[in-house]
Specification:
The chain is mainly α. It is 46% helix and 8% strand.
């Protein structure tokens, strides 16, 4: 459990069909982390005992969980490497692309809900003034637009290649 003085960190950005709370299966205490929905969401709860039973049976849900966990291990490793080796500007670009689901192949422009610069700063591991500076730079370069909603363009990928 986190104390008042311990900083928070975003450790994952989840999407459709992703799992969270899976650490309870390994014996971790309840509420090791907090999940926050940025858009309307539908969440299915599976009791620990039921999930353990499904894992033993090897059904479709258990196969999905195992695939998700293996993917998560790779994603966490990539995320830590990215945090250690990339600039804050690159990390912000990466977070925006992931939030817009443009980190893979996708449409050229995607709108996501506006997040405060403070929330983005916490996600990136930097300060709000630096996020403000980078967001203004991204907007001037035409990579994003945030009038009403946050519009992220595929061209933001250039930031990942150029820095």
């Amino acid at each position: 459990m986190r104390s008042k003085h311990q900083p928070s960190a975003v450790t994952a950005i989840l999407g459709v069909h992703d799992f969270f709370g899976e650490l309870c299966l390994a014996g971790y205490p309840l509420r090791m982390s907090t999940a926050v929905a940025l858009t309307a969401s539908s969440i299915r709860t599976i009791k620990k005992e039921k999930m353990l039973q499904m894992l033993r049976e090897g059904n479709k849900t258990s196969n999905s969980l195992v695939a998700y966990l293996l993917s998560s291990v790779k994603n966490y490793r990539d995320h830590v490497a990215h945090l250690l080796t990339s600039s804050a500007e690159k990390r912000l670009a990466h977070v925006l692309l992931r939030l817009a689901h443009l980190d893979k192949n996708g449409p050229p422009v995607v709108e996501i809900p506006i997040l405060s610069h403070q929330v983005l700063a916490e996600m990136v591991g930097t300060t709000r003034p630096r996020v403000n500076l980078f967001m203004n730079r991204f907007r001037k370069q035409g990579f994003i637009n945030y009038d009403g909603g946050l519009e992220v363009r595929q061209s933001l990928r250039k930031v990942l290649r150029n820095l």
